[in-house]
Amino acid sequence: MNESYMSCCDWSKCTFCGNCLMKCPYLELEKEDxxxxxxxLIAGEPANLVFDNCAKCFNCNRYxxxxxxxxxxxxxxxxxxxxxxxxxxxxxLINSMPTGSLMQDMYARxxxxxxxxxxxxxxxxxxxxxxxxxxxxxxxISCYDIENSQVLKDLPKFSPADICCGELAYRMIGWECYxxxxxxxxxxxxxxxxxxxxxxxxSCYNFFSNILPNVYGKSLPFELVxxxxxxxxxIENGELEVKNPLNYTAAVSESCYVSxxxxxxQEILRKLYRAAGADLVELKHHGDYNLSCGCACxxxxxxxxxxxxxxxxRKKHKELKEANIKEAIVNCPGxxxxxxxxxxxLGKKKWHYAMDDLLGAFGDEITKPLNKRTxxxxxxxxxxxxxxxxxxxYPMPRIPVVGPVPGNWKEKSKWTEKK
Length: 419
What we know:
It is built from 20 helices and nine strands. The protein is an alpha/beta fold. The protein has three domains: 17-77, no CATH class; 82-241 and 390-419, no CATH class; 243-361, Rossmann fold, CATH 3.40.50.
């Protein structure tokens, strides 16, 4: 196991070519500035051009000729330069954080039937199960549709509500928080006797298949595939067929992790959309050269949340407008939420969440699509509104690796029912 974001790489191998910061779609620095900034980052000195403009989108990792990971170096330096305080809302986004968690609050607001599904998903699948579906944080609020899916009916579900891939902890808070959550998740995965895990969420797939081994230094003891790949295999084998074609033309709005997963993953997405009946339009920034939804921009500059979020998204909205595209597909639930929050202000586009649309195209009934759940998120956050910008100090409370998490959804549900 590595001890920090930086320790995944030997930074003495950096040749100071500047490619990572020159080719970045947000920074686009001149060579002299790019070289100066990367030297500052490695030395641990303030690199203000990066700190003020980085979208934490992973693109820079694609351009390093030495296969170093500048994005992880930048993440570490941004966190180190926070002066020991962050707004409470950053910690609130982290699943199972003892000081309060948006995820656990959302689960507590689900219906009784939905909570019974979450409890069912905590159970270890029966012996002889070779393949399971892992859902992830935000996917759990769609538990009713996933549990009753005809497309996914042969996939046993395993997704305890107090574990996750750790993406938000990794990008928002810091290494210790990420490590706690990952170790908690790995402990639960040790209970599984399976050959393959299918990831419902693309972010989970990236963090388990890429960040976990390449940055954290550990690997899962079973094969991992994305649900997109699983579905495409079913189509190619004749086990899935389109029942409700996606009769729309839309741009593919990549999530930031897509550049990490490479051309094969990108092509799987496009084959699925086309197989489901969508006509696709490619934007200037796509694939390995994509744009962020703005969420990671906010984590880079948490004291300027809305300004950073809008700045990160404006370029994407401008590109859609210039291409005269009114609809776009996103494959990341975080992108879906954050782009929906600012949609009226920036672009008034029609955003399609890929997994809902694809499952619907192959015959499922989607009763609560993610692109209609913005109000649910807002209602969950509102009781915490006055607290969101209150500063909290490092170190953060540690997430327990084993045992119950304080303030989990079951505790909150019992309190709500008593009230």
